[in-house]
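Input/output pair, single chain:
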Amino acid sequence: MLAREQNELITRVGRGTPMGEVLRRYWLPVLLPIDLAEPDGPPMRVKILGEELVAFRDTSGRIGLLDEYCAHRCASLFLGRNEEDGLRCVFHGWKYDVNGHCIDMPNEPPDTRFQERIHLRAYPTVERGGLIWAYLGPADKQPDPPAMEWVRAPESHRHVSKTLEFCNYVQAIEGGIDTVHSNFLHGGLPPSKRAEQRSTLRQGAPPRLEVERTDYGFRYAGVYPRVEADGSESDYVRIYQFVMPFQQFR
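Output:
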């Protein structure tokens, strides 16, 4: 259980907050490639770490992730036209490339070169492991793109999906690494079989947790005392890996 002050500290992730700055030092999964399946297809709204952004795949297949609102009159670029390697605002036609540069300004005389002074916040993206990742942190601190083993696995050896959870990211992590609730919530067995399964665990004995800190986060084991059919005792061990900032393997 977290105190209220601790909960505020760890769950506030906007720009300038302590946890927000930590999360911005990592590549974050933001979309599935199917969300931006076609070049020049419709853009998508993306809200991540409290930032309202818009994503699009341009004519050349590059993925842009920009501030959602046009620098001119703050019209939403979600309503924009994705055409000829840029996203054009429908209000006055200002057009932005995947790097956030204004590359066309039809309501301004070309000799003013005013468009060269206009730039939207834009974030680098990369497609790996069946996901579109983005880096929202300082450019001079940008790490290498994700290269975990599952990211490098061929498409035939992985399955990627997404779900909507009405909670903050800390609650999602808590659910993922909580070894005790798995026996009750995710057993996948009818009541009679669940009772039979629980009877093999020593009644009243909570799991023993063994935790080891690592450079990437931590790993731990939930060790359950178990009674076998012949009356002998053994241990049932459930192992987890936690990789910063919020990835889990088990």
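The chain has a mean pLDDT of 90. Residues 169-177 form the longest helix (9 residues).
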